[in-house]
## 1
Amino acid sequence: MNWIYGVALTRSSILQPREQTLLILRCLKIKVNALMTKHDLKAVKAKILEEIDKTSKSVEDYREMTSPISPENTTGRVSWMDATNNKSVAETALLHAEEKLKNLNYVLSSIDEPGFGICINCQKPIPIGRILLMPQSRYCVNCAS
């Protein structure tokens, strides 16, 4: 049995890192958002909305770039191979952009939760600079690397 801040965690109580963080915060009666000023939260929310807008546009662009290659657009074997290679690069970029968009929407929906701004791995506060730089990240710099 493990004890975290006076709460017994048994092997049968398997908690996800985020749930563990919220449990610890409830036990300590800490609201992490209280560590950030209202101005900070407003700036973070604005940054998230800006990133969602940019990423949504990127997803649309990548979807256009990943459309099927018609034979009329290629003038030979090398041109077709180049177009196929470009399409596969765009497909990878599309997957990354869609994942980022999903994470941004999740972070936006959880901005008012008590665990916002806490690393889901080490449970330490994520610096506001990192949150503004990468609002979709739920890890501090040490845990992300």
## 2
Amino acid sequence: MRRYQLSAIGILLCGVLFAGVAEAGRDQIIAAGKNEYNESCKACHGATGKGDGEMASLLVKPPANLTLIRSRNNGLFPFWRIFQMVSGVEKVEGHQTIQMPKYWYRFREQENLPGYDLANQRILAVTHYLESIQASD
């Protein structure tokens, strides 16, 4: 009986440890996504993603408030749809003009250079970051 109790305690401790590691990994992914966002999106969408970046007033179409994605989708963050938008698979109004550079092309060009992650990893990180900045409902 004692052996089973120790096994159960061991499994529980492993689960807690794994959850902590997973959370730390998620924090790193979100931090990487924030860095990509700051480099590629902040000028138009703003530091907090509300569409109030320093370039916003110069654009014909105002940048979207990216903190409202979840609330515009019935309380659910459409993770893979946003991934496809960021990656260029799904068109986004305003992104096809010269005013909105297609950053995913730059990501793909850079992925073979030293010090750069694969384009899809960078896009995934941006998508996780956007999910993390959603306004509270």
## 3
Amino acid sequence: MMTNKEMNQAIKKELKEAGYSAKDFRVSVKDAGYETSIHIYIKNAAVRKSEIEKLLRHWEEIDRDQRTYEILAGGNTFLFIDYEYGVLEDAAADLIQISEKVLANPEKYSGRKIADNGKKTAHITQYDKYSWTLCEVEKGASGIYEYRPTYWIRSAKDLAVAMWRFKNIGTIYA
């Protein structure tokens, strides 16, 4: 059984060995009653949350009832991974004005492609008065476009973040 400090150091070491910088993350390991809580805060918008979840998922240990699948109390280790507050918004700040223009003109942009990076396109559709959907369509090896799940947009900030990811990471998804 590792102490919280040892677990913190081991996670940081694992992230470093995977090629990430210590400046990209803040790691916090704390006791929460009879449980342990691991919080990973991503400080670099270019780091994909899904990659960190795949890398560190083995740290999470949750005991469940076999019949009801309820979480059993005591001895669990919970893993929470999220971006540091404001990191994505700061990175996407330059795209806010463009995003506001797109959302203010549904007749011009709804149901249309708004971005293309050669391999993928991003299409936006107005869902209702306050919500939009953004989907990423990937051109498969066969030349047929493959649809990916929908990304919900509720503000210009949401659209700006998704477009920043598409431009800099190649996908709208974290």
